[in-house]
Amino acid sequence: MATRSSILVVDDEPGLREMLSILFRREGYDVATAPGFTTARDAIRNAPTPYGVVLTDLMMPDGSGLDLLSHAKERSGETEIVVMTAHSTVEIAIEAMKRGAYDFVTKPFATTELRALIHKAFEKSALVAENARLRAQVDRQSPKDLLGRSQPMRQILELAQRISTSRTTVLITGESGTGKERIARAIHELSDRKEKPFLVVNCGAIPEALMESELFGHEKGAFTGANTRKLGIFREADGGTVLLDEVGELPLGMQVKLLRVLQEKKVRGVGETNETSIDVRVLGATNRPIEDDVKAAKFRQDLYYRLNVIRVEMPPLRKRREDVPELASYFLDRCSREHNKHIRGLSADALRALDAYDFPGNVRELENIIERAVALAEGSQIGLGDLPHEVSGAASQPSPSLMSLPEDGCNLDDVLGELERRLILQALDRSGGVRTSAAKTLGVTLRSLRYRMQKHAMQDDDDEPLSTDVSPSELLKVAAKIDD
User: Fold this and answer.
1) Cα–Cα dist 351/458, whole Å
2) Taking phi first (over 0 means left), then psi (-120 to 50 degrees means alpha), and beta for anything else, what does residue 389 get?
3) What is the pLDDT averaged over residues 263-286?
4) Measured in whole angstroms, how far is the alpha carbon of residue 197 from the centre of its chain?
5) Closest CA to 468 of 430, 416, 415
6) Does domain 404-483 have CATH number 1.10.10.60?
7) Which end of the chain is more exposed for a tag (fewer CB within 10 A), N or C?
8) What Cα–Cα distance (Å) separates residue 151 from each residue in 176, 320, 417, 428?
9) Mean pLDDT of the chain
10) Residue 400: exposed, middle, or buried by beta-carbon count in 10 A (0-12, 13-18, 19+)?
């Protein structure tokens, strides 16, 4: 049976097939062999699981290794192909690499060289398979309003993937509305705890007198009104994840008890005499600088260090403006369905206004803005007049993020990326949305323009020309300032 550690050796020389089969079995691989193209093609098609590596001769009596490469890649993009060739066919082997082969070796070859090459090919196959698995998990499991192709969001999602497999505590920080709860849920859903509960505690909404009971439970009769036994959130979430939202609001007395639970992994409810072991991953979230509370002795330093093992800082929406169109489109589609309206998109003016607005309420505010616009819209498109005044008025103001250097500096790549994006919008607006004319205005090829639009997650259609009020001359001044 083919597995990720299996190799298919294809050559019409029986002696070479036997030698390579023995060599790779000694290396710990599952080895299958085929005497020619037809047999190998059928083996690739019928294998229950794609081969990790196919090592094939280039020239065979009944077919070409190039054709076999195509069959293997059609079966699975995770299969790596290594081509064996004679000196006289090196140019064809190079062509095989252009078509997707991992590498090639010339006959006769040293076994040490071939072993090292096959080992690297398996490493690449495993890496491609793992990347595909992670992408599928994120597409299937991550909350949709974590959409975003900006560099900050890519880094956040990559971090969420890496830390999802561990059990350590995580502190998620960021302004209100940036999606702290949603990234916490994504961490849970990407982990092996995803089938267990994910429970959220709003630490600022529970009265101090009831907090211990809510978190750790109580025994029947432990206090007035305790008519039944209560497990508490930590025991209800056993095997899963607990998010302590606004963890900075915890009273000092409760902080001591929480610290002990994190250290001992045991809870004791109010009125109980015995402790119960629990297996819960704890995530904390806060929208204020909790370090200031530590300095002011309002938050225990030892608890802070216990929570802040891994930190995830959610960026405000104004620092990832390139994600606004994608988020707005998602919210528009969802709200249109909820309100039973058929709204196909946003006008160029509305997009420009959203692009210029600073979103003090972040993603949550954007969602509310789109929902309001859908409710008010009378046509098939969201226009500038459907947006709140504070948003529609922002379109006439130049974006400060590109027109001046922040006091705390900036990320040059992000600034230049935003500069490029805005110039593309300007060129598209000037050309009436005709991409060939926009490319000519920018002095690039149409292929280059398409690539850049894809990089910035810009729509590549003719529905509506995109635009910006910031002129190219103003934007180019930014580049000059950076050079200075």
Assistant:
1) 11
2) alpha
3) 93
4) 22
5) 430
6) yes
7) C
8) 20, 8, 10, 24
9) 84
10) exposed
What amino acid is encoded at 15 in this protein? G
Q: Tokens in use for 117?
A: 């090459």
| Rounded (5°) CA angle 124-130-134 | 145
φ and ψ at residue 202, rounded to 5 degrees: -85, 100
d(CA 54, CA 78) in angstroms, rounded, equals 11
Residue 16 has pLDDT above 90, yes or no: yes
pLDDT in tens, 180-198: 999 999 999 989 999 999 9
Residue 463 banded pLDDT, cuts 50, 70, 90: very low
Q: Which residues, including other chains, have CB under 8 Å from residue 255's CB and lie 6 or more apart?
A: 299, 300, 303
> How does pLDDT run across 221-243, given as a tens digit for each residue?
888 878 888 899 999 999 999 99
Do residues 143 and 185 lie in contact, with contact meaning Cβ atoms separated by under 8 Å? yes
Is there a shared CATH topology between the 164-313 domain and the 318-396 domain?
Answer: no
Name the pLDDT band for 142 (thresholds 50, 70, 90): very low
Domain 6-133 has CATH 3.40.50.2300: yes
> CA torsion angle for 444, 448, 453, 457 (degrees, to 10)?
-150
The mean-pLDDT minimum among 30-34, 119-123, 308-312, 404-408 falls in 404-408
Rounded Cα distance, 245 and 258, in Å: 14
Contacts of 169 (CB under 8 A, 6+ apart): 262, 281, 282, 283, 284, 306, 307, 308, 309, 310
Cα–Cα distance for residue pair 237/245, rounded to 1 Å: 15
- Report domain extents, the chain: 6-133, 164-313, 318-396, 404-483
Residue carrying the six token digits 């990407």: 190
Q: Measure the CA–CA gap between 348 and 350, rounded to whole angstroms.
A: 5
